[in-house]
Amino acid sequence: MESTTFSMKELSTLTGMPMRTVRYYIQIGLAPRPVGEGRGAYYTDEHLERLLHIRKLTRGGLSLEAIRQTIEAEDTPQVVLHRPKPGETSVRSHVHIQQGIEIVIDPKEAAISPEQLRHLIAGVLELAAQGVNQNRGTPLPQTP
Question: Smallest Cα–Cα separation from 46: which of 24, 61, 26, 20?
Fold first, then answer.
């Protein structure tokens, strides 16, 4: 799929930010630098998404330093944030443990093997059974 490209003016219009603000965010490293140099420089969907994200965070009251920390955390490989796109579907498994207790597993997000998943479910079922037996067949108490 081909990426859309934007001029600085188009990017400014799409984000609702003055060009000066966009340039400032690039200068301080909150947004990526343009592709290319000089008059041939252009911006991509990645730039647009980042600037819209920054706008959302600033409207939420975050300082630029807090936004920087948020972006760095999101860009860190250990942090996996999945934002579904409109029209995206996902398949989840619902595992009934006992009345009122269910585990919902998204295989795409879980990042565990089917064998690990089977062990997890077996362990949870075993713990739930122990809890029911200890309470003489009554469901596990709910914690506040």
Answer: 26
Distance separating alpha carbons of residues 43 and 36, to the nearest angstrom: 9
Q: How confident is the model at residue 14 (pLDDT cuts 50, 70, 90)?
A: very high
With a threshold of 0.70, does the pTM exceed it?
no
123 burial (CB, 10 Å; 0-12 / 13-18 / 19+) is exposed
Domains and CATH numbers, the chain: 5-75 (1.10.1660.10), 84-144 (no CATH)
Long-range Cβ contact pairs of 86-95 (< 8 A, separation 24 or more): 95/121, 95/124
Structure tokens belonging to residue 3:
């990426």
* Cα 65 from Cα 110, distance rounded (Å): 31
Q: How far is CA 101 from CA 45, 46, 79, 116, in A?
A: 41, 40, 27, 20
